[in-house]
Amino acid sequence: MTDIQAGERIAKVIARAGLCSRRDAEAWITAGRVTVDGRVLTSPAAVVTAASRIEVDGEPLPAAEAPRLFCYHKPRGEITSTRDPQGRTTVFDHLPAGLPRLQAVGRLDINSEGLLLLTNDGGLKRQLELPASGWLRRYRVRAMGRVNPDRLAALAKGVTVDGVDYGPVEASLDRQSGANAWLTFGLREGKNREVRKICAHLGLTVNRLIRIAYGPFKLNKLPKRALEEVPPKVLRQALGLEDKEKKKTRKGFAKAKPRPNRPGSKRGFKHQREAAEKDEAQKKRQRRSPKAEAAKKKAAATKRTATKKPAAKKPLAKKSVAKKSGLKQGTAKRPIPKKMGAKKTATRKTGPKKTGTKKMGTGRPAARKTSGRKAHAHRRRPS
């Protein structure tokens, strides 16, 4: 038994069960094919409840399916009606078998193409069609003529065409190629042939019209005459019956899968090798005894002290060495520079010849007398 709200019309309940449309259900009731609680109905105005027992042609009314929504890429040359008196092709002629009875959400005329929503629930169809839903319907339009940017921008405040008021329209010029222009329109009302009438008001002739989006549902790259079902979870989120999942943005949430160093490597992954080497080194450290560790440290310290090089000593001046040793300098004498001009000879005092031995308790050796100029060793070096 289908779910029935308090005080629903019988035709609406039969249509929701997926047997037929409301118009057909009313015709079935008039023909006496529907009974409620064993009584044959003759008027479609009858109201039923969840406790009512409804039968159609002697069979209990089947339970209503869960609401389903499909995206269909409608090509040019097909109409969105269930039946056409003129025998033209409809969108339902090319649908795959095994589907429930579907209804079109909104309409696209025979020369329009693009996204068409189909559903098995009349209540969902009505909900999506109402402007109160606030869903934006986007169209790509190719029109012949030159676009006036000012008049195009004025559509954002709404426009009146032939006495019909249209709400705000989002319109933008994509490109002008020769005599044709490509535009994008965004509507929230979706009145009959609204885009074509607005373009005619702007002096443009539409020669191609493609619906690319209906609310959150987009055409994307869906092939022509292809049907794709919207996942139930996405549908509930679009209708506001379920909150959307928040994306996790914390760092390091998704870690890259480790890869081997090179194709065909037999050594395995790098992190596995490093872990194995670390474990092996730790085991070696555990196997060593404390005495062996102490002996090893002592040997290393001894080796460091043995390999140390002695510090190089600074060479001392010859005179300073002679002063410390207390001995006279050798026979090699440093040449004394001579002054320019008169020649002067150095005089040496005569006296007893001193031997090379030093007497105990004596002071410094006698300083050698030179000419008026100081010896080279005693010169003051420039600072």
CATH level-4 homologous superfamily of the domain at 136-214: Alpha-L RNA-binding motif
DSSP E strands, number? 17
Number of alpha- plus pi-helical segments: 9
In percent terms, what proportion of residues is strand? 15-25%
User: Main β-sheet: number of strands, strand sense, barrel status?
Assistant: 9 strands, mixed
User: Whole-Å distance between the termini?
Assistant: 117 Å
CATH C-level label of the domain at 136-214? Alpha Beta
How does the overall form come out from the CA principal axes? elongated
- Radius of gyration based on Cα positions: 54 Å
The ordered H/E elements are: EHHEEEEEEEEHEHEEEEHEEEHHHH
Helix content: 10-25%
Mean pLDDT: 78
Structural class, judged by helices and strands?
Answer: alpha+beta
Q: The CATH topology of the domain at 136-214, please?
A: Alpha-Beta Plaits
Low-confidence stretches: 320-328
